[in-house]
Specification:
This protein is an all-alpha fold and about 120 residues long. Helices cover about 75% and strands about 0% of the residues. α1 (about 10-80) packs antiparallel against α2 (about 90-105). The chain is rod-shaped and about 105 Å long.
Length: about 120
């Protein structure tokens, strides 16, 4: 039966059914959008944490590389002799911290020292 052959009450019931199905579809789409928004927020948080860890590891790597370069430059015997106190630190600690902080500043970290362990 075509729409023009239907009685007004039948046509109204058909339109109301269609409206209900459309409302259900919209509700389903809104729920899916909300779920995707929650997932995106979670992934953004996870990405921020991972980026922060990468920054710290990059600074740590720079500190270790500076220590290795220093040891190669002065030799192991000189490194032992340097173990004298530098305001409570060994020379290797000073070299590490300077390189760590320099790399942090290069990467845009405002206060790299707060990420150093120890």
């Amino acid at each position: 039966m075509s729409a023009s052959d239907m009685l007004p009450a039948e046509r109204l019931a058909e339109l109301e059914g269609l409206a209900t199905r459309l409302q259900d579809g919209v509700a389903g789409l809104r729920a899916a959008l909300e779920a995707q928004t929650v997932r995106a927020t979670s992934l953004e948080r996870e990405l921020a944490v991972t980026e922060a860890k990468l920054l710290v590891e990059t600074m740590h790597s720079a500190g270790l590389a500076a220590q290795a370069t220093h040891l190669l430059a002065v030799g192991p015997e000189a490194a032992l002799a340097e173990a004298e106190d530098h305001a409570g630190q060994t020379m290797l600690s000073v070299v590490y911290e300077q390189a760590f902080d320099a790399k942090g500043r290069e990467l845009g970290v405002e206060d790299p020292a707060r990420f150093r362990v120890g």
